[in-house]
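Lab notebook, page 48
Experiment: co-folding of the full assembly
Goal: obtain a model of how the components sit together before planning crosslinking
Operator: M.T.
Materials (sequences as entered):
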Amino acid sequence: MINRRRFLNISGRTMLGAGLASLLPRQLVAADNSFSDYKCLVNIFLYGGNDSFNLVVPTSNAEYNVYAASRQNLAVEQLDLLAINPDNSDGATYGFHPSAGALQSLFEAGDAAVIANVGPLVAPVTKEQYLSGAASLPPQLFSHNDQQAQWQSLKGDASLATGWAGRIADQLAAETADQLLALNTSTFGTNLFQAGAVSIPYSVSTTGANTYGAFGAEAALGAERRAAFESHIDSEFGNVHARALAAVHKRSLASADLVNQALAQAPDLATVFPASFLGAQLNIIARLIAVRDRFEMCRQIFFVGAGGFDTHDDQNELQPGLLSDVADSIQAFQLAMVELGVNDNVVSFTHSDFGRTLTSNGDGTDHGWGGHQIVTGGPVNGRQIYGQMPVLEIGGDDDATGGRIIPTTSVDQYAGTLAEWFGVDTSALGTIAPSLSNFTTSNLGFV
Amino acid sequence: MRMVLHSIYRSMFVSLFALALGACGGGGGGESSPAAPQIPAPTPSPTPSPDPPSGEIDISLAEGARFLRQASFGPVEGDVVSLQTTGYEGWVDNQINAPASSQLQHLSALPPPENGAEGRRNRLEAFFKYALENDDQLRQRMAFALSEIMVVSDQGALSNRPGGLASYYDMLSEHAFGNFRDLIGAVTLHPAMGVYLSMLGNEKPDAARNIRPDENYARESLQLFTIGTVELNLDGTPRLDNAGQLIPTYDQTVIEGFAHVYTGWTFGGSVRFNRPSRDYLVPMQAFSSFHDTSEKKLLNGVVIPAGQTPEQDLTDALDNIFAHQNVAPFISRRLIQRFISANPSPSYVERVATVFNDNGFGVRGDLGAVIKAILLDVEARTSVAGGIGGKLVEPLLRLVSLWRAFDASAPNGRYIYPQPNNDFGQAPLRSPSVFNFFSPDYAPAGELSDQGLVSPEMQITNETTTASVNDYLALSIYIRNSNATTLGNQAIRIDIAPYLALSGDPEVLLQRMAEKLTGGVISSELEAEALAMINAIPQDQPAFRVTEAIHQIVSSVEYALIE
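Observation: model returned without errors.
Model output:
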């Protein structure tokens, strides 16, 4: 059986006890697990800047011709596009990249939606404002790490060291106080998205929690060695880096065996995940979700990542593999959620550094700004395109310059919508998405 | 508090500490003037003593080991004694003059790899072999540091190009103590970089086809390799405009200017632009007909004229970058972070950047002078107060220093360790992206972030990696050692034979192991815990006792830190 007292040291609990909880009104602290339902968000971050203008493409002749004229040798053939039939229409028709058949199926079944032309914004920006320099903009547009940080933190033009999932965990600390694992778990290592002011994310590998072999029961003196090490990492280190490292050791040791014991009892999934790193990450998440009750989890946010989307070169060769991995992995995850009976509780959504230039550099594309994202899961009001599809014309109204498309929906709106579904009080959404009040629509309605 | 086990060394340590304090108050405390470009004086010599003539007798075992953990892949037996003879500066000078090891040479001595995995494995073997065996330690550390700043990787298009990557690494070694301008020239024209950041094959614009030059190398070389995104003061702090705002170093038009500069280049020795030689061992060459000849906007308002050759444009563009005021503080801070401290004081950065700008002989960009200034600075040679100094040792380098301390080798003479990234979250030239395994600005949430401090290595330190790092270190100590009888021919094992005789006296044993790993520095808490563990092992298991002593130190938090 699980030792309850041990659990209290897991994840952010200890920190919480010493930190946020003492600042909260008593009735909030007492309101442990005020959520009676289970909700889960899965952020699939496509590192490098996914060329989503080739993922969702207009199929109607007029719009396709504009796209093809811009995209030239990087355009997907009109007849190859996989048609979708959204319930809402802007007059044009659209299709998915031929490698994203799995997404087409999800979309058509009502389990997926497209969020059109979303990107980091401080406030709505017109082309004129952008060109005149009058617009308030997130700094260092077109730079990978700066824009990844924008997506993950929503810091806009301010300074912010936490991520929006980290702030959700902080915000819901009282309501999730009985959870025995951190609200935030990553299969892609350290990330800004899940960094909280108080809450601390947890990291697992694609096989579960990594363990310290020298401390195991099968190692001679393993238990004694573990006790000595636990005493060591409890030392009062005088150096700030040492304290940081010791804290990770503590969290790792506190959770690993329990996580693995729970996973060992997870049901075998019939769903087969792609053999990719992304597939493996979503697979372990599905298994963690399967054993959520052992950890009394009512709210979870997972972070997974995939790389290789910075297609400056060989885009036509690379993109099919990249997009099929995303599509097939998302579909497998969705099937696993159905299999586990939690399809109505879990929403997965994509993030990426930026969209890419409509112009080509010969055989690839460069760093853009806005792009499309995909949301899937039972709670999603699917088979719809949310926001406005941009005009894919070089020099057109949506082109900042050089085929970099100005976003018409902000990441704050995108994240705020997800946060509200997740259970963040509307009055607190500004904490999660600081620029949200600069936009007229605070909830995009896709979930 | 740290203490030194051995009383002789303790007294030496105390006397050095007193000297260092004197030096700090006398020479290092004030702001150095940017107008007086001088190599900062190292810790002043003590009052002349009769022997040895170098006057460097004040380097204690602890101080010597600390220096060698900072500047090499870790001390081996005899290194500190040798350092005590040469002194810090003499050691650095010797290292600068030592011939460079060549990874390419190692690869060519091996049978051709039968597949991609074997080629990648062989390239990593060269890294481990030289880190463990060769004498050009500082040069190899410098190449490793540069490989984490000017990143290329075998993850992606270069996965089956071990020769090209070894050649790139050799190029970094070759230029490690040379001039920064030559270094960025060689980096820019190396075909591995050309492929990795897609300058190779980049063509002039073709408006009719909406094709414009690739911006990849243009952007990342400015952002990550040379100047960064915002204007810096000489001391590495950001410059602010009158409104208190950060000042961008470039805008999109400058990126486009550089992108146009970097057109027309392909593999060296190609007959035609579109018939590339795929020779990864020679610098790229230009074909004028694929080069854009319009005028180009560069940094600081500089515009280079239309009609230049690809080579002229490239020279002008790299000169323009090299002349930028950010280069000195940008590179100085990054190198300090790789060797000494995650959070160097502004005055430390300024002292090093001042040497970058003028090595004392009117030369800008002398990396040999820069690394010497970094290693000999008072902030490197003494501990910083307040518990914010130093840095975490990169996880992989903890393994390498363990192996060095205990003379690790495999019976087959090889160093076969194909996937260190799976255990340590890093491997030479295997970063997931050009942004390296960790960012120089990474700050975990909490105490570090709250204080405005960074800890780059913490970006690859999470619940998953602390366990896998610890696990591999334990494997490398308890299982793969000279006492084991069932290991495969290629298992790299540490040599514990010389220490088995010490196992009867746990205190002596632990002290000896600490001397080898940290120059004898071990906290009293860790000492007590380690002794209890060693004493729990029956005396008739000497190998277990020795490996326990080693593991207690190597797995500790304090061994992962050089303060």
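Interpretation: The longest strand of chain A covers residues 39-46.
Next step: discuss with group before ordering constructs.
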